[in-house]
Amino acid sequence: MGNAASTPFGDCLNSVCDGMENCVAYPTTPFYHIEWAKSYNLDHIITPKAVVRPNSTNDVSEFVKCAAEYDIKVQARSGGHSYGNHGLGGEDGALSIDLVNLQKFEMDEETWHATIGGGTHLGDVTDRMHDNGNRAMAHGTCPGVGIGGHATVGGIGPASRMWGTCMDHVLEVEVVTADGTVVRASEDENSDLFFGMKGAGASFGIVTEFVVKTHDEPGTAVQYTYNLVFGSPSEIAPVYEAWQELAAEPALDRRYASEFILHALGAVVTVTFYGTEDEFNDTGIPQKMPFGGQGEPAKLILDSWLGMVAAAAQNEALYITDTPMPFNTKSVGLTASQIPDSDEIESFFDWVDSTDKGTPLWFLIWSVAGGAINDIPSNATAFAHRDKLLYYDSYGIGVGDTVETFIAGAHSRVLDTTGLSSTDFPTYAGYIDVDLADGTAQNVYWGDNLPALMEVKKTWDPNNVFSNPQSVRVAP
C-alpha cells in the first residue's frame, strides 16, 4: 500500500478497505501511475494522494468521510477520459475514487427503466441493454468512457439529435454527498441537487447508481463515410461550406447525424441515418450532400444497434481513443447565428493551409447538434447549451509549443467568426480545456446557469470537498 498508509488519512482509508485486496494505493505503491493513477492526457499528468476502488455505495460514503475529515479534495473516476484528468483530481493531492467495481445492472421490463452502476463503461451499457430487451439510449461512441462522468456532464453522441443527450435519459440518481450521506435525487426529490448533477455532477457528489429511461433499438441505419483527398486544406473549404449549409437546415431530419473531420491528409465526413435507405432517400438529404465528384463513399447498411454503435466507435477512433496520449484540445458551441459565412470559411481554411501544425496528428472536427437536445429549456439542467447547432472541437496529438500554438490559433479564428472572445464563449463541459483559468472555465461551461449552481454548491458542498481546478465554486 505504500508508506502513505501510515498517515492518519491513510489509516482512515485502510480502515475502510479492512483488508480487501486492490482497494487502495498511494504514490509509493509500485506501478502507481500505470495501474492506479492512470492519466488519460499525458500532457497533464496528475498524482493523487491516493486512489481507492470501493465495492459498494457504503464504501464510497466512508471514503468521502475520510477525505472530508482530513481536508482532502475528492473526485470520482468512472472511465477516466477527462481531458484534464479531473477524475484524478485535475491537480496533485486529491483522493480519486475509482468506481470500476460498481457494475450493477437491472432492467425493469414494465417501465423499461434501467438501473446502472456508476462505474459502467458505455460499451457495457450498450451490451447489457441489448441483452435485456433490445433497449438503447443515446450516448457517446468511445466504449471505454464511463457513464459516471458522461451522464453527469451531458453525454453527446450520434443518436443525440434523435433522443437527446445521455444525461437527458437520467430519471433518478443515488448520490454520495460531501458529508458522506447517501441520498436519492430526481425531479421530485432533492431537485436542486438533481439539477446540478445533470451537467456539473463532479462539483456536487458521486453517483453510484443511475436510473434511466430507454428506447427500442433502431432496426436499421445507413452509414456513409466520405474520404476526401485534396492537395491542401483550402481546397476543402467549399465542401465544408456546403456541408454546413445542410447541417443548418431548420427542419433537418432528427435521425440524421454527421461529422466533418479535417486532418493532415484531407477530410473525412461521416453520415449516419437511423432508418432504412428508402426512408433516408425520402428525406431529400442525399440529394443535398455536397460530395459530388469526390468518389463513391463507403456505405454500410446496419441492421443491428450493436453494429451501429461499433461503426460509430470505429469512426471516432480516427482521432481520439481509449489510449492515453499527450494532446491539446479546444472547443466551442455555435448557434445558427454564429456559424461562419463563405468569406470566413475560406479565410479559416487558408490559415490552416499555411500554418505549421507541429504534428502530423491533428484533427479539426465539426459535429451537428440540435434536434432533441434543443427541446429542453437551457435552465432545466446544469447543461446550458441547448441552442447549439454545431460543435467545433480540435485535437493536436503530441508535445511542444508548436502543437499548442496551432490548436489555440485555430480556436481563436473560430471565435473571431462569432464575435466572442477567448474568455467569453460557450462550450460543453465534457470537452475540458485545461488552459481556461478558474472563473473563466465555469462561465464557459455553465453560462447563465452558474449562479444557480453556486447556490446548489453552498447547500450541498459548502466546504468544497468535490473539487477540481474548474469545478463549481461556493456562492459568496
From TrEMBL:
Pfam hit, one: FAD_binding_4
Which molecular function term from Gene Ontology is one that the record holds? oxidoreductase activity
Keywords of this protein's UniProt record, alphabetized?
Answer: FAD, Flavoprotein, Oxidoreductase
Q: Which residues form the FAD-binding PCMH-type domain?
A: 44-217
Q: Does the keyword Flavoprotein apply?
A: yes
Q: What family is reported?
A: Belongs to the oxygen-dependent FAD-linked oxidoreductase family.
Q: Mind telling me what this protein is named?
A: FAD binding domain-containing protein
**Which species does this protein come from?**
Zalerion maritima
